[in-house]
Hints:
With 214 residues, the protein is of the alpha+beta class. It has a single domain, classed as Ribonuclease T2-like (Ribonuclease Rh, Chain A), CATH 3.90.730. It has helices spanning 2-18, 34-37, 78-87, 95-100, 103-111, 122-134, 138-144, 155-166; strands at residues 26-32, 51-59, 62-63, 151-154, 171-174, 180-187, 194-195, 210-213. The termini are far apart. Mean pLDDT is 91; it is low at 1-5 and 7-18.
Amino acid sequence: MFKTQHTLAFFIFLCALSDVYGTFNQLQLVLRWPASFCDDKKCERTPNNFTIHGLWPDIKGTVLNNCNPDASYTTVTGDKFDKRNKHWPDLILTEAASLKHQGFWAYQFKKHGTCCSDLFNQEKYFDLALILKDRFDLLTTFRNKGIIPKSTHTINKIQKTIRTVFGVVPNLSCTPTMELLEVGICFNRDASNLIDCDQPKTCGTLGNTKIFFR
Ligand SMILES: *[C@@H]1O[C@H](CO)[C@@H](O)[C@H](O)[C@H]1NC(C)=O
Ligand SMILES: *[C@@H]1O[C@H](CO)[C@@H](O)[C@H](O)[C@H]1NC(C)=O
């Protein structure tokens, strides 16, 4: 009993820590590389292209969380489902299961989407993520610079490639074994302009550290 309460208290404490409120000053489109994401998980699908992890409103380099505990997620079907499923798939689930259980999108919306609802309602939030994602063919950008799947490159090279093509500093994240996992691309509040990500991460402190593009 004591242990349960203890765990619960600790959990509440963690939640309290992770909830940050305020007005966002950047929107971060977080793209994930499925092969790396799926390396240590049981995925039902591993598309050969970047997919969306989320669209995150940030305030000064910190991700905002759970801004409206009363918000509810609206399930999508038909064309809307197909589009979302293609570009923002729940890799853990099959397509059929994703149609039934839209927990990944519900989670992303409640945790992040509720933090930019002053500008984007739920429908606009999801549409915006898809529109922004379609502007970045990172796969081709990478391929043009020789960054192809199963090759290794320095952090500098990956960062510079994104900077050169998109003109802004991305927020990179890697797995613990230094595989490129996610690329965050940042926008101003209404997503009309690309901006440098605030307090970007780079996977390591040394630019010549090698990262693997699985
Ligand atoms: C940068 O990306 C990492 C990993 O995706 C994330 O944890 C972090 O919050 C991001 N930084 C910002 C400022 O959003
Ligand atoms: C990968 O995704 C981008 C962005 O949505 C798209 O433009 C591109 O055609 C896709 N590439 C392949 C090979 O599917």
